[in-house]
Specification:
The protein is an all-alpha fold and about 425 residues long. The chain has one domain: MFS general substrate transporter like domains (Growth Hormone, Chain: A). It has helices spanning about 10-30, 30-45, 45-75, 80-95, 100-130, 135-160, 165-175, 175-190, 210-215, 220-250, 255-280, 285-305, 310-340, 345-375, 380-395, 400-415. Helix 3 runs antiparallel to helix 14 and helix 6 (about 135-160) packs antiparallel against helix 13 (about 310-340).
């Protein structure tokens, strides 16, 4: 396709809106974590309750990410995206109306339904709008919005707003941008020109909407699911429990806690570009191994630090560069390159869904159990063990980075005597 035949103006408008949308997903999802110390006092919650509130959203997100990845191919992107962004924005506001644990759990579970539906559909819509030569960059740009808004800015926004309003009003205020963005998306986002239900070009090609069993037969898909579980355990346990760790164990005040926790987002924002970019040169397998090993080392160092905000921020920044870079790498290039023909959205949905259910759903609840029964100071052992397991899982990945695959194919030819070289 020629560049001058491509609607570049629409591409950038769509990508910017979808990146902002995924950023608001992160903001609405993670705003609750730095607010938990205040919420716990008002609603009389325990650390186990905190883990359950984070976990239930991850479970519903994972289930609906896996389901909606394929459904949006059938009914269209707009019919999923626009209702989803309006729904999770309203539900974020409703979080401020919770009168107790059960109502808070119910609202967060429904938020997971809406955000899980938005996630793979927005990735597919970004790919639809992007020129092939910019598709990888645009997908990276969109995913990095989650880290920037959800994990970098939300702790700062939440803790600063808490100095002037109650936690209930914080939820109400941050729901407004999503409603505005949903209206803008209604007027801008188009359905892809190519009909998603097109028939396969040959009888031997897999159908575009084959079932999930077809996806799981691809070697790297189940490996990516397991590896993403390990990476997301690191991300979500840190995001959910670090505010309590910093305030209750290290005795930081709310404002300094917010600044330290923001390192997860700032480091992750850069990592979601950096690690996948590094994998283009070193290969997906090597980058994944390095990412898990780097996270393990940084978290071990973090655990040994006291109430030193600058050092805590720096170490957490590097740890998050690796662990959120892994999320982008495994759910992006690894899942995409392992996808059967015509099933990229379905493959992404299945990989993200599995990572969310276990890493985003079960792991925070388990972290709450550890904090309640063994002390908040021991929660870091859970992500450390998870990323160490991730190193072993990454060793099983089959290399799919185009540059590395080409070099591997050329290597045997280069070793042959000149007389035996292929013509």
């Amino acid at each position: 396709m020629k560049s001058n035949d491509w609607d570049v103006a629409y591409e950038w408008k769509a990508v910017v809106l979808l990146a902002l949308g995924f950023g608001l997903v992160g903001l609405d999802r993670w705003l609750i974590a730095p607010l938990f110390p205040a919420i716990m006092k008002d609603l009389h919650l325990t650390a186990q309750d905190v883990g359950n509130c984070i976990g239930i959203l991850g479970l519903s997100w994972g289930i609906f990410a896996a389901l909606m990845g394929g459904i949006s191919d059938k009914i269209g992107r707009r019919k999923v995206l626009i209702p989803a962004i309006l729904a999770f924005s309203l539900l974020s506001g409703f979080s401020g109306l919770a009168g107790g644990l059960m109502s808070l759990l119910a609202v967060r579970a429904l938020m997971g339904v809406a955000e899980g539906s938005f996630c793979p559909t927005s990735f597919a819509a970004t790919a639809d709008a992007s020129h092939p030569k910019r598709r990888g960059f645009n997908l990276g740009l969109q995913q990095s919005g989650f880290a920037l808004f959800g994990l970098a800015l939300s702790p700062i926004i939440a803790t600063q707003l808490l100095s002037v309003v109650t936690w209930r009003w914080v939820f109400a205020l941050v729901s407004v941008p999503g409603l505005i963005l949903g209206a803008l998306m209604f007027f801008v986002i188009r359905e892809p020109k190519a009909a998603p239900q097109a028939t396969p070009k040959c009888s031997m090609c897999p159908a575009e909407r084959g079932n999930w069993r077809t996806v799981l037969k691809s070697r790297n898909i189940p490996i990516a699911m397991a590896a993403l579980f390990c990476a997301m355990t690191g991300v979500f346990v840190l995001g959910a429990m670090l505010p309590l760790y910093l305030t209750e164990y290290l005795s930081l005040d709310t404002q300094r806690m917010g600044v330290v926790v923001s390192a997860i987002g700032f480091g992750g924002f850069i990592g979601q570009f950096g690690l996948p970019g590094l994998s283009d040169l070193t290969g997906r397998r090597v980058a994944s191994i390095v990412g898990f090993a780097g996270t393990a080392v940084m978290l071990y160092l973090f655990r040994g630090l006291g109430a030193q905000p600058v050092q805590l921020f720096a170490v957490l920044f590097v740890a998050s560069f690796f662990t959120l870079g892994l999320v982008s790498l495994l759910s992006g290039p690894v899942a995409t390159e392992a996808a059967p023909i015509g099933m990229i959205s379905t493959s992404i949905g299945i990989v993200v869904g599995a990572g969310e259910i276990f890493g985003g759903g079960i792991a925070p609840a388990l972290a709450g159990f550890v904090a309640t029964h063994f002390g908040i100071q021991n929660i870091l052992w859970l992500p450390i063990c998870a990323v160490l397991l991730g190193i072993g899982v990454s060793l099983l990945l089959e290399e799919t980075a185009p540059a590395r695959v080409r070099r591997q194919r050329l290597a045997p030819s280069l070793e042959l005597p000149a007389s035996e070289q292929p013509e």
